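FORM 12-B: Structure-to-Sequence Request
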């Protein structure tokens, strides 16, 4: 919708960004362009395209108009200037880190990140001479400052952590990182970019597993990295094409389609998640609920300050004494809540995850693991009935 001035509100932009009906026969949605070869009528045109290869249709690996439409819409959602589409959320994490770190440098990684992020830093990056140090997600400025080294060039955050839900103080982390010359990378998947605007809070590179809420239907893998800085965009694109991480045009199309209904889906996930979280908090079998909108969640005050709402992903911890068999009895019998990785789709999910197998900087303060819930689009009362039956099976 290039002709009109950019509309002001986020929900309007979600319906208009990345669309260009005038260039597509009036068709509302951008078509799916499949391409490897792109042909040029003259040597001059080919050279021009090569010179502007990160900004134009040049070769399939660099993106097609479908990729660019998706990137434009995500950049708009995140309030960034440019996005780079990649084939998964993990690819978005890897491309970001590889774009800003070099041999001999150091990265600080929050100890509540998606665990494969930490593994990537401590395994893969280490092979290339980059050292990674995890830090406690709720570390204060002094603790963080003490961990910064002259060679620290990046701080990787996730707020809230997608297993243990601590909400990090991103502006404080950004102040410390920037004062020491390091960039702030943030996995912004939980908020879908809808409820947290990373560049207002000091983030330099915002990462999304678009696989989750953006695609929204559990049927595609997709990632996006967004920046405001042109030089960072060039570095990201150089890594993306250099590694051959091209997002498939069909998946970009699903990402665009998901974005069109995000403003309707996310509030529903939020409302159902809050209803389930409140209900669980009142149950005798439950010790604590880790939902950023509840006071029981570490960083709740920061969530209130920096976020405009919640998504549908949260955790809870059972009271001491339940055995793995008790929990299996509960989980195996769930009717609506399915067990499986990922989240952000229309369906409700529940999965057990033990932070003790992932955390290195601080002790998990509970005897029991986290039971993580993704609140889907089902009727919340049916979901509560499913949880109720499950909690009763615990002690059966
Ligand atoms: C917070 C978070 N970031 C990144 C990823 C990775 O996304 P993908 O599965 O698309 O690689 C996940 C996957 O579960 C996630 O939960």
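FORM 12-B RESPONSE
SEQUENCE OUT:
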């Amino acid at each position: 919708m290039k002709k009109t001035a950019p509309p002001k509100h986020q929900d309007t932009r979600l319906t208009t960004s990345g669309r260009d009906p005038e260039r597509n026969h009036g068709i509302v949605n951008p078509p799916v362009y499949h391409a490897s070869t792109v042909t040029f009528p003259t040597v001059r045109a080919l050279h021009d395209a090569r010179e502007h290869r990160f900004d134009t249709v040049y070769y399939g690996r660099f993106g097609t108009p479908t990729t660019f439409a998706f990137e434009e819409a995500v950049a708009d959602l995140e309030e960034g200037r440019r996005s780079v589409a990649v084939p998964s959320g993990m690819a978005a994490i890897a491309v970001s880190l590889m774009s800003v770190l070099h041999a001999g440098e150091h990265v600080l990684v929050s100890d509540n990140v998606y665990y494969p992020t930490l593994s990537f830093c401590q395994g893969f990056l280490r092979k290339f001479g980059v050292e990674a140090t995890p830090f406690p997600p709720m570390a204060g400025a002094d603790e963080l400052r003490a961990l910064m080294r002259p060679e620290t060039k990046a701080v990787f955050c996730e707020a809230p952590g997608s297993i243990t839900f601590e909400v990090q103080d991103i502006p404080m982390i950004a102040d410390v990182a920037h004062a020491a010359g390091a960039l702030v990378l943030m996995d912004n998947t939980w908020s879908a970019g809808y409820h947290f605007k990373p560049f207002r809070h000091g983030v330099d590179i915002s990462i999304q597993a678009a696989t989750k809420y953006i695609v929204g239907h559990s049927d595609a893998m997709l990632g996006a990295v967004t920046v405001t800085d042109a030089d960072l965009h060039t570095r990201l694109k150089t890594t993306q094409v250099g590694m051959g991480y091209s997002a498939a045009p069909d998946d970009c199309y699903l990402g665009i389609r998901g974005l069109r209904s995000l403003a309707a889906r996310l509030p529903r996930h939020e409302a159902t998640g809050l209803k389930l979280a409140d209900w669980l908090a009142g149950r005798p079998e439950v010790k604590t609920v880790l939902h950023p909108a509840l006071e029981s969640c570490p960083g709740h005050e920061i969530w209130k300050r920096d976020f405009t709402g919640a998504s549908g992903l949260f955790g809870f911890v059972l009271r001491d004494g339940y055995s793995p068999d008790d929990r299996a009895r509960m989980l195996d019998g769930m009717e609506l809540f399915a067990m499986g990785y990922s989240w952000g789709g229309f369906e409700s999910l529940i999965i057990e995850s033990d932070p003790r197998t992932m955390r290195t900087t601080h002790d998990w303060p509970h005897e029991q693991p986290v039971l993580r819930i993704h609140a889907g689009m089902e009727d919340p009362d049916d979901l509560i009935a499913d949880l109720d039956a499950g909690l009763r099976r615990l002690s059966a």
